[in-house]
C-alpha cells in the first residue's frame, strides 16, 4: 500500500502540472482509499500492483482500445517473440476488474468469470491466446465487462455540446 501510495502521489503531481486547477489535491488519497476498499478489504496493507494497475487503467480517460492493450500487457506472459494471455491470467484480470463494480454493489459471481473465460477461449486449442484474439473478444463486449465500454461511452459524451435551440 505504501509503494502504491507513493506512485499515486507522483502520478497526481504530474497530472496537476499538466492540468492546473483540474486535479483535486487529495486525489492520491482518495484513489488509494478506493483501491484499498476494492483489493484490501481485510486491511492487510497489501494490494497487488497488477490489480491496482488494472483498476487505474479501467478508470482512466484513455480509449477502450488503449485500455484493452494495457490489460493485455499487464497480464500476458512472454512466449518467445510474442506475449500470450493464459486462461488463469484472464481469470485473474476479470476477477480484478470485477472488484470495480463490486465496490458499488454490482458484483459478479465466480461463475460469470468462468463463463467469460470459456467464451474467450472458445474454439482455441492452445492454453493461451495472442493479443489480437484477446482484443477481438473484448470488442465483442462480453457481459462480464459490459460496464467498461458503457462507462467509457458515458464519459466520452460528457463534453459533447450541440448548437441547437429548443422551443
From TrEMBL:
**Matches recorded under Gene3D superfamilies:** EF-hand
- A Pfam family that the UniProt record links to this protein: EF-hand_3
Q: Which branch of life, at top level?
A: Eukaryota
User: Residue ranges of the EF-hand domain?
Assistant: 65-154
What Gene Ontology biological process does one annotation of this record name? synaptic signaling
- Provide GO CC annotations from the record: plasma membrane; synapse
Q: What is this protein called?
A: DYTN protein
